[in-house]
């Protein structure tokens, strides 16, 4: 039988790390045009894209290493909620048709991380005193 008490913090950490890396990819597309430029966006970037990319870089790196995970995830969740309503909701009601599914998923995964924390392997765990 799987020991869920043992594995839950580890799987939470994997979710945190993978989500942060995927989120960072959105910033690299904005700033480095890697792995490709964002389709339909003109360069130089509009100011709102620079702000969004900066939030993505900072929060993704913090979440990746697990430092201030809850705060970074809360901010990233808010950014994704705003992104959905600014860029996708106006294109139609259904997320599958307005291409808003990734923004919604990021939003709710980040909201979960804001409440659950970074799990195992988070740098912030080193700041806590050991429980006896």
UniProtKB/TrEMBL annotation:
A GO-annotated cellular component: plasma membrane
First-listed, main subcellular location of the protein, grouped into a coarse class: membrane
Compartments reported by the entry: Cell membrane
InterPro entries: DoxX, DoxX-like_oxidoreductase
Membrane topology per record: Multi-pass membrane protein
Record field: transmembrane: 7-24, 44-64, 71-91, 103-123
Protein name: DoxX family protein
